[in-house]
């Protein structure tokens, strides 16, 4: 963020149900479905930057299923129990997806929402169930959009090569024929901002120029 804020008006936000954002109770106005998240993002874009938008994507048809660490939160019997465990919901998720050795004060930022309220766990449980149900359809929809002749938006894919959740298998095949640029980050995992934040910031700046 500091790298981008040097030249751009940069805004970081947390998705509903995570971080410092509201965590509405499922079935009371927000059910954490992918359609609802899409509508929320559209609302944000229209309010903040309706005329200009840059998107970075990190997924292909090889990743139609949730990684096992996240899939456990959608389990019918154990999901609600696991999602209320701060160490399982926060620390294990972060450390299982990349080469991270987080400082305790940084880990505490991610852990705190699960310590202060059960709402964070309920949100995690709800979004995990929704993704397990709808993720495949959304990825297929993304594939169709990117392959459409009507898609004229410049698209760049940034990929952390040390991502333990999403392997690089199939990435070049998926995007290679679409005339889209692929940027590889050799030392980055799934949460790139945690260990290669400055590098990623400079890459994004070079793309936006």
UniProtKB/TrEMBL annotation:
GO terms for molecular function: hydrolase activity. The lineage of its organism: Eukaryota, Viridiplantae, Streptophyta, Embryophyta, Tracheophyta. Gene3D superfamilies: alpha/beta hydrolase (3.40.50.1820). This is Alpha/beta-Hydrolases superfamily protein. It comes from Zea mays. Keywords: Hydrolase. InterPro entries: AB_hydrolase_fold, Haloalkane_dehalogenase. The keyword Ion transport does not apply.
């Amino acid at each position: 963020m500091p790298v981008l804020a040097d030249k751009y008006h940069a805004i970081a936000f947390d998705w509903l149900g995570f971080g410092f954002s509201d965590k509405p109770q499922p079935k009371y106005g927000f059910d954490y479905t992918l359609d609802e998240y899409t509508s929320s993002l559209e609302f944000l874009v229209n309010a903040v930057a309706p005329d200009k938008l840059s998107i970075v994507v990190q997924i292909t048809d090889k990743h139609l299923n949730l990684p096992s660490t996240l899939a456990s939160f959608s389990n019918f019997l154990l999901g609600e129990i696991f999602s209320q465990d701060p160490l399982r919901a926060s620390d294990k998720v972060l450390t299982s997806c990349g080469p991270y050795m987080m400082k305790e004060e940084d880990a505490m930022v991610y852990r705190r929402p699960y310590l202060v309220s059960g709402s964070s766990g309920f949100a995690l449980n709800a979004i995990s169930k929704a993704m397990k149900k709808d993720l495949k359809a959304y990825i297929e929809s993304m594939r169709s959009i990117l392959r459409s002749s009507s898609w004229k938006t410049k698209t760049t894919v940034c990929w952390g090569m040390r991502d333990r959740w999403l392997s690089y298998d199939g990435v070049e095949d998926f995007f290679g024929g679409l005339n889209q640029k692929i940027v590889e980050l050799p030392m980055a995992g799934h949460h790139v901002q945690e260990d290669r934040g400055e590098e990623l910031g400079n890459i994004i700046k070079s793309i936006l120029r």
